Amino acid sequence: MSRKHLNGPFVFPVRDIVRHPGEMREHRVEVASPAKWGEGLVSVAEGEIIDLDVRLESVHEGILVSAQIDTEYTGVCGRCLTDIAQPLEVEFQELFGYPGEEANDFEVQDDHVDLETLVRDSIVLSLPFQPVCQPDCPGLDPNTGERLTSDAVPEAPVDPRWAALKALTPDHDGEAVRPAADDTEKS
């Protein structure tokens, strides 16, 4: 492995806690995203700041890594296509096993752990599939393609066969339209 890889922003030394169960180290770092993470409507942009709060705990099987990630994703709303930027909080926990022991997905290598794959995968899997600018976003007008406001939801076109019933609906004041009273009735 190259020396640059061993000193990357997601690489943490564990030499002083390897095979010392009960020992723990905590790290808090700010890292710029090395690439754009995510391929859908939203993603974490290259260079976006990622706050990483990491706890490394030595256990009998290896190094248990617990992390909390805070960053921001950007993209477009899935309903109205306006630009959005939202905070993203992610947590993960993973065991980095010692080399030569039980098969693990991740191993302690050269007295360090590299968290880049875990951080990237955790972020990408936490991105919303259908992001919205607000929970009740009305979307786009199907006829004009313009963004709707929550007040201006378009009225559905009336089927011509039902148009005659429109006269029987309430007027604008909320009272039903009634026929005029007959003046010839006696009290």
Could you describe the 3D structure shown?
This protein has 187 residues and is mostly beta strands. The chain has a domain at 3-126. The protein is built from two helices and eight strands, in the order H-E-E-E-E-E-E-E-E-H. It has helices spanning 3-6, 116-126, and strands at 11-13, 24-32, 42-43, 49-59, 62-76, 83-97, 106-107, 112-114. The strands form two sheets. Strands 2, 3, 4, 5, 6 and 7 form a six-stranded mixed sheet that branches. Strands 1-8 form a two-stranded antiparallel ribbon. The radius of gyration is 30 Å and the shape is elongated. Residues 1-5 have low confidence and may be disordered.
Radius of gyration, CA atoms, in whole angstroms: 30 Å
Q: Beta-strand percentage? A: 25-35%
Low-confidence blocks of residues: 1-5
Query: How far is the N terminus from the C terminus?
Result: 103 Å
Biggest beta sheet summary: 6 strands, mixed
User: Could you give the count of β-strands?
Assistant: 8
Summarize the structure.
It contains 2 helices and 8 strands, in the order αββββββββα. With 187 residues, it is mainly β.
Topology:
Elements: H1 3-6, E1 11-13, E2 24-32, E3 42-43, E4 49-59, E5 62-76, E6 83-97, E7 106-107, E8 112-114, H2 116-126
